[in-house]
Design brief:
The complex is a heterodimer. By secondary structure, chain A is an alpha+beta fold. Chain A contains two helices and two strands. Chain B has five helices and five strands. Chain B has a four-stranded mixed sheet with strand order 2-1-3-4. Classes of the chains: A alpha+beta, B alpha+beta. Strand 1 of chain A pairs antiparallel with strand 5 of chain B, so a sheet runs across the interface.
Chain lengths: 55, 143
C-alpha cells in the first residue's frame, strides 16, 4: 500500500498515471503494462510478447 | 464502527451459499498501523458471516517475519488467500479491499472455494507451460 502523501512520487517512479493498471513482470527481465480493463485475449497476447522479449 | 451493514451481511450470506470448500485468509498486519487495524475489523466481519467455511488467521509481520517472507509479504496489510488445504492460491490483496475491491475480494473467495478458474482451456494451457516466474500486479483505488 502506498501512503497518500507518498503517492505522487511513487506514481512517477512506477509510471502509474491511471487505474486500474496491470503491471506484468517476467522475473527480473522485461515487463509490460496494461491500462484499464483487460480482456483474456489481450492479456495472453501481452504475456506472449513479454516472454518473447525475455528470450 | 461496524464496516458491514445488516444489508451487506445478508447479501454476503446469500453469496456465500456458493462456497464449496473452506478458504483460509492469512492476513499480515503491523501493530499500530491504521490500515492494518481496519483490515482486521473488516475481515473479521466478513468471516463472521460464514465461520464454518471462512477461516481468518492474523499474523504480525514484526513477530511472524519468517512466514511473511515465505509468502513474499512486503507491505501491510497483505491478505493471502489459501484454499481448504491451506495451499496458497497466489492471490494477494495489498491494502484495504474496500469500495469496488470488496466485491473483487468476495469473488476471489468464491473462486478459491470452488476451485473455479475463469480462463479458457487454451489460455490455461499456455499459462501452465510458462517456465518463468511471472508477477501480475493490478493497481487500483478503493473507490
Amino acid at each position: 500500500m502506498v501512503e497518500a502523501t507518498e503517492f505522487p512520487q511513487w506514481a512517477e517512479e512506477n509510471a502509474v498515471y491511471a487505474v486500474p493498471r496491470t503491471i506484468i513482470r517476467l522475473g527480473r527481465g522485461p515487463s509490460g503494462a496494461i491500462e484499464g480493463a483487460v480482456s483474456e485475449d489481450y492479456l495472453i497476447r501481452t504475456l506472449k510478447n513479454i516472454i518473447e522479449q525475455g528470450r | 464502527m461496524n464496516p458491514l451493514s445488516e444489508r451487506d451481511r445478508q447479501t454476503l450470506r446469500e453469496m456465500f451459499r456458493d462456497l464449496k470448500f473452506s478458504v483460509h485468509l492469512e492476513l499480515f498486519v503491523e501493530e499500530g498501523h491504521q490500515w492494518s487495524h481496519d483490515a482486521v475489523v473488516l475481515l473479521r466481519e466478513v468471516v463472521r458471516v460464514m465461520p464454518d467455511l471462512l477461516r481468518l488467521e492474523i499474523w504480525n509481520v514484526g513477530h511472524d517475519n519468517l512466514l511473511a517472507a515465505l509468502y513474499g509479504v512486503q507491505q501491510v496489510p497483505t491478505l493471502v488467500v489459501a484454499d481448504h488445504r491451506r495451499e496458497d492460491s497466489g492471490i494477494r490483496f495489498i491494502g484495504l479491499p474496500t469500495g469496488y475491491e470488496f466485491s473483487v475480494l468476495i469473488e476471489a473467495l468464491l473462486d478459491v472455494s470452488q476451485n473455479r478458474i475463469r480462463l479458457s482451456d487454451p489460455s490455461l494451457n499456455f499459462i501452465r507451460n510458462i517456465e518463468d516466474d511471472i508477477m501480475l500486479e493490478v493497481f487500483v483505488t478503493p473507490t
